[in-house]
């Protein structure tokens, strides 16, 4: 069964004629995770997303499945424990997407430093125990100042003490979303992008029983009825809750904006992901990550009250990040004109949440004395596990002190919450990409209970830790070997080794299906022809931007080759969808606008004045 415009139309016809068990509003990673588990459990599942899948937030992350080592600064041990365990689960169900990529953490002697050489070793040892990588090739290790500079000679030498290296995972955020969506579709779910909710529906008893939506491609409005409606719209959660006219639900979101900038690796070269304090004593940290011959860095962390649909990179964002990176790498002298691409995204923070990602604690800043007390307690515990009580007491004392403080945007933990309103609307909000499967699992247990108690329908939930996403049917314990095996199939039809491996990492176990879409596209090579044909037929890609930004990363990390392929890509779309001249012009203008925004064209012009 293909996943295309044709199957989308079939899905719309289906939802008009029947009642779903669950309607999911929002097609980012949270909604995609819920859709996968619901459809796999046999529930009649419908998901609607007003933009492209992952367009709003889930394609705009730092592109890591991050273990959250910084939470150990405040000894939010439970959060880190849950996060690293869940990261392993994500790698298990989507082994072709998150890949291990150890992180370098340079340590500087400066005010507001997150770690010193003593505390970072304690934190990394605890982190390794939580992640179960002690005595493995991914175990942490400490570097001297000289070893750090040998590895990254462009780093600032002044006040550098040394560094630590610990396990983290790179990620392709938009691919993770679409692979969850595709699996839900394969299991019978109806997944509709470009479909906007405009009204929450209620039955004669005032209970939520669906939504009126608008097909943004045709302008048609129609109703979708469902026993359970769940809001998974991230930063838009409050807007959807406001549509529930039968219930006055309080606002709960406090979105913050993060920005990332991309330059060529020749301008800023790092051998591995690097993570450091800003040096501004502002509680923030910045990633510098190599990828596809480029280097990207971010992120900012500021409260956001603007247009949720279109957060943008401002001059202030650029100045802030360039100042930090040029300070940490004093010989590179980056300017705005070195930036090839950029992206801005929102974090769906819950304003009332504290330190735990599961609704507990407070994530303010510990005093040095409080932190040292916990460090020493943990050090004793690692030597003698009978001293667990001392750690618990130290953390409890720190929590009591933290409870008196207020939270900055950098200190609010990425907590999640699942709530049901009096009239039945479920809202699953907050969280982060690493936790998506766990959040969905919690939501499915509630949905299962509601369907049993209120609709006398019984469903057995899947074991989602062992249920792979689309493309994930490979051995997660031997990913490199599996990728090489898959790539051989691509090489057999004439692809170069690098192109074959690129497609293997993009599609995982779906590569064999993708290779059947090898009809040449005029103006494109074999690799790009396969990727584009597959996206049109199997990944519900509706615009060139959908394809070039989210099904692939061309706009972000292959910008220097984009001019050669964008016209052939548009030509193929125009032929596939039988666009009129006017429709083609609109799509071309949309693509150019996205390229200009990502490339900071207007800001660069202003900086030439």
From TrEMBL:
Its EC number is 1.1.3.21. Residues 466-584 form the Alpha-glycerophosphate oxidase C-terminal domain. It comes from the Bacteria. It is an enzyme of class 1 (oxidoreductase). InterPro entries: DAO_C, DAO_C_sf, FAD-dep_OxRdtase, FAD/NAD-bd_sf, G3P_DH_FAD-dep. Keywords: FAD, Flavoprotein, Glycerol metabolism, Oxidoreductase. GO terms for molecular function: glycerol-3-phosphate dehydrogenase (quinone) activity; glycerol-3-phosphate oxidase activity. Its cofactor is FAD. It catalyses: sn-glycerol 3-phosphate + O2 = dihydroxyacetone phosphate + H2O2. GO terms for biological process: glycerol metabolic process; glycerol-3-phosphate catabolic process. Residues 21-352 form the FAD dependent oxidoreductase domain. Belongs to the FAD-dependent glycerol-3-phosphate dehydrogenase family. PANTHER family: ANAEROBIC GLYCEROL-3-PHOSPHATE DEHYDROGENASE SUBUNIT A, GLYCEROL-3-PHOSPHATE DEHYDROGENASE. This is Alpha-glycerophosphate oxidase. It comes from Enterococcus phoeniculicola ATCC BAA-412.
């Amino acid at each position: 069964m293909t996943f295309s415009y044709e199957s989308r139309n079939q899905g719309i016809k289906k939802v008009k004629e029947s009642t779903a068990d669950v309607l999911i509003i929002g097609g980012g990673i949270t909604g995609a995770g819920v859709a996968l588990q619901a459809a796999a459990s046999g529930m009649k599942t419908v998901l609607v997303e007003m933009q492209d899948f992952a367009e709003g937030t889930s394609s705009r992350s730092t592109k890591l499945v991050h273990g959250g080592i910084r939470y150990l600064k405040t000894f939010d041990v439970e959060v880190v424990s849950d996060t690293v365990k869940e990261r392993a689960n994500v790698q298990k169900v989507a082994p072709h997407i998150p890949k291990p990529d150890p992180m370098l953490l340079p340590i500087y002697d400066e005010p507001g430093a997150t770690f010193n050489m003593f505390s970072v070793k304690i934190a990394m040892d605890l982190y390794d125990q939580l992640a179960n990588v002690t005595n493995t090739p991914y175990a942490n290790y400490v570097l001297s100042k000289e070893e750090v500079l040998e590895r990254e000679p462009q780093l600032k030498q002044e006040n550098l003490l040394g560094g630590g290296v610990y396990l983290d995972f790179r990620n392709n955020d938009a691919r993770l979303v679409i692979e969850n969506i595709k699996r839900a579709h394969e299991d019978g779910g109806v997944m509709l992008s470009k479909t906007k909710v405009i009204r929450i529906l209620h039955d004669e008893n005032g209970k939520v029983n669906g939504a009126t939506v608008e097909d943004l491609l045709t302008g048609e409005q129609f109703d979708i009825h469902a026993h359970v409606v769940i809001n998974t719209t991230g930063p838009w959660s409050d807007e959807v809750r406001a549509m529930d006219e039968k219930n006055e639900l309080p606002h709960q979101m406090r979105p913050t904006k993060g920005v990332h900038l991309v330059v060529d690796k020749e301008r800023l070269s790092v051998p591995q992901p690097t993570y450091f304090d800003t040096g501004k004593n502002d509680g923030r940290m910045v990633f510098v990550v190599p990828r596809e011959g480029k280097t990207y860095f971010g992120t900012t962390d500021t409260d956001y009250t603007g247009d949720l649909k279109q957060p943008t990179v401002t001059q202030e964002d650029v100045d802030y990040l360039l100042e930090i990176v040029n300070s940490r790498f004093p010989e590179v002298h980056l300017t705005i004109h070195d930036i090839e691409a950029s992206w801005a995204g929102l974090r769906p923070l819950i304003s009332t949440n504290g330190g735990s990602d599961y609704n507990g604690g407070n994530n303010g800043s510990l005093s040095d004395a409080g932190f040292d007390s916990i460090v020493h307690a943990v050090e004793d515990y690692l030597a003698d596990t009978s001293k667990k009580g001392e750690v618990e007491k130290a953390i409890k004392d720190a929590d009591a002190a933290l409870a008196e403080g207020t939270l900055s945007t950098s200190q609010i933990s990425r907590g999640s919450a699942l709530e049901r309103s009096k009239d039945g609307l479920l809202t699953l909000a907050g969280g982060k990409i690493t936790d998506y499967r766990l959040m969905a699992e919690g939501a499915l247990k509630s949905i299962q209970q509601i369907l049993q108690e209120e609709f006398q329908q019984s469903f057995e939930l899947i074991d989602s830790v062992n249920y792979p996403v689309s493309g994930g049917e490979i051995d997660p314990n031997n990913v490199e070997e599996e990728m090489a095996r898959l790539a051989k199939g691509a090489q057999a039809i004439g692809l170069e080794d690098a192109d074959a491996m690129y497609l293997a990492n993009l599609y995982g176990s779906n590569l064999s299906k993708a290779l059947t879409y090898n009809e040449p596209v005029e103006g494109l090579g074999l690799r790009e022809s396969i990727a584009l044909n597959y996206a049109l037929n199997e990944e519900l890609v509706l615009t060139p931007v959908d394809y070039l930004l989210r099904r692939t990363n061309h706009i972000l990390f292959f910008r220097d080759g984009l001019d050669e392929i964008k016209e052939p890509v548009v030509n193929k779309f125009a032929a596939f969808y039988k666009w009129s001249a006017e429709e083609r012009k609109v799509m071309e203008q949309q693509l150019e606008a996205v390229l200009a925004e990502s490339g900071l064209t207007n800001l660069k012009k202003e900086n030439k004045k």
